[in-house]
């Protein structure tokens, strides 16, 4: 990528010129929403699902997006085209826009819409075979009645506190519990466990984002006849699982080999996790919206 172009409120500007006000309430208060989306060989994977989640988040926080869903999809495709990318990562941000120093969103007449596309540095391929180490951490997932984790909000401090603990423990991803001690999700990934051939993932009401990759894995299990249950589970269930993996747009389907010092299964990616990763990589270039036609 020689020159990087950013979509900024209806204009395409060079990265160096992409500037916004310090009075933006996304900057001042984390008041806004975002999406992380992948492009695989010119295909925006599950584009409509990402946009539906964005518009649902916007509705929930009463943020009016100044583009229709179709206009947004066109803006995504055009930004990718202008950057000449076939594979990469899209960060789509809608913030409340500039207001005054008070927190009242009514003082912010115009939302900001920003689209950044970049190449993505993901985990090295060995990590998918060897699995990550993980730990459970002390910060609990935001309560759904305080800040619902289903809203993909710009306020990521809950997740950042978790990431800090993961860094201190020297692991790639951490496991967050909800306030009742049930497993919720990772700092930026959903979690799955496998026990005796059955795949389990926490229901989103536990306190988890309705991940697009999570949804893809649920669909794949149904297609392949692999039994899957969305039900609450605890760390004990994680420690004693045959396989554990995280899912996310950036991480895809990544195995976990150790949790809080307990070795999971054989201590590397298990057979079902590897199969689901293979199957996932088959659909990513197919399901979604084509950029170049
Ligand atoms: N949970 C959280 C908190 C996230 O930020 C993300 C996104 N990285 C996920 C789960 C995974 O969601 P998706 O598969 O849509 O990327």
TrEMBL record:
Group of enzyme by EC? transferase
Part of which pathway? Amino-acid biosynthesis; L-leucine biosynthesis; L-leucine from 3-methyl-2-oxobutanoate: step 4/4; Amino-acid biosynthesis; L-isoleucine biosynthesis; L-isoleucine from 2-oxobutanoate: step 4/4; Amino-acid biosynthesis; L-valine biosynthesis; L-valine from pyruvate: step 4/4
Would the keyword Repressor turn up in this protein's UniProt record? Answer: no
Instruction: Note whether Amino-acid biosynthesis occurs among the keywords.
Output: yes
Q: Note the InterPro entries from the entry.
A: Aminotrans_IV, Aminotrans_IV_CS, Aminotransferase-like, B_amino_transI, BCAT-like_C, BCAT-like_N, Class-IV_PLP-Dep_Aminotrnsfr
Pfam families the UniProt entry points to: Aminotran_4
Top-level taxon: Bacteria
Gene Ontology MF annotations: branched-chain-amino-acid transaminase activity
Quote the cellular component terms of the Gene Ontology held in the record.
cytosol
Its BP terms in the Gene Ontology are: amino acid biosynthetic process; branched-chain amino acid biosynthetic process
User: What keyword terms does UniProt attach to this protein?
Assistant: Amino-acid biosynthesis, Aminotransferase, Branched-chain amino acid biosynthesis, Pyridoxal phosphate, Transferase
Which cofactor does the UniProt annotation name?
Answer: pyridoxal 5'-phosphate
Q: Which reaction does it catalyse?
A: L-valine + 2-oxoglutarate = 3-methyl-2-oxobutanoate + L-glutamate; L-isoleucine + 2-oxoglutarate = (S)-3-methyl-2-oxopentanoate + L-glutamate; L-leucine + 2-oxoglutarate = 4-methyl-2-oxopentanoate + L-glutamate
Q: Which E.C. number(s) belong to this protein?
A: 2.6.1.42
What does the function comment of this entry state?
A: Acts on leucine, isoleucine and valine.
Quaternary structure and partners: Homodimer.
Q: Which PANTHER family match?
A: AMINO-ACID AMINOTRANSFERASE, AMINODEOXYCHORISMATE LYASE
Q: What is this protein called?
A: Branched-chain-amino-acid aminotransferase
């Amino acid at each position: 990528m020689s020159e990087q172009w950013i979509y900024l409120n209806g204009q395409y500007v060079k990265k160096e010129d992409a500037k916004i006000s310090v009075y933006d309430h996304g900057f001042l208060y984390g008041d806004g929403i975002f999406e992380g989306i992948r492009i695989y060989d010119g295909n925006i994977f599950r584009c409509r699902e990402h946009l539906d989640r964005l518009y649902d988040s916007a509705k929930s926080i009463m943020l009016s997006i100044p583009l229709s869903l179709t206009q947004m999809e066109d803006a995504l495709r055009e930004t990718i085209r202008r950057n000449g990318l076939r594979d990469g990562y899209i960060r789509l941000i809608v913030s409340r826009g500039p207001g005054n120093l008070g927190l009242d969103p009514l003082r912010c007449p115009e939302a900001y819409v920003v689209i950044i596309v970049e190449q993505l540095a993901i985990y090295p391929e060995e990590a998918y075979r060897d699995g990550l180490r993980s730990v459970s951490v002390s910060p609990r997932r935001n309560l759904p009645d305080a800040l619902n984790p289903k809203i993909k909000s710009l306020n990521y401090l809950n997740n950042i506190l978790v990431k800090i603990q993961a860094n201190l423990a020297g692991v790639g991803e951490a496991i967050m519990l909800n306030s009742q001690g049930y497993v919720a999700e990772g700092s930026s990934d959903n979690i799955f466990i496998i026990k005796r051939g059955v795949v389990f993932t926490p229901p989103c009401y536990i306190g988890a984002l309705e991940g697009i990759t999570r949804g893809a894995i649920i669909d794949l299990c149904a297609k392949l006849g692999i039994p899957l249950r969305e039900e609450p589970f605890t760390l004990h269930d994680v420690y004693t699982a045959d396989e554990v993996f995280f899912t996310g747009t950036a991480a895809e389907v990544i195995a976990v080999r150790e949790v809080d010092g307990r070795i999971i299964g054989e201590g590397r990616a298990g057979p079902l996790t590897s199969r689901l990763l293979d199957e996932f990589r088959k659909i990513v270039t197919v399901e979604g919206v084509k950029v170049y036609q």
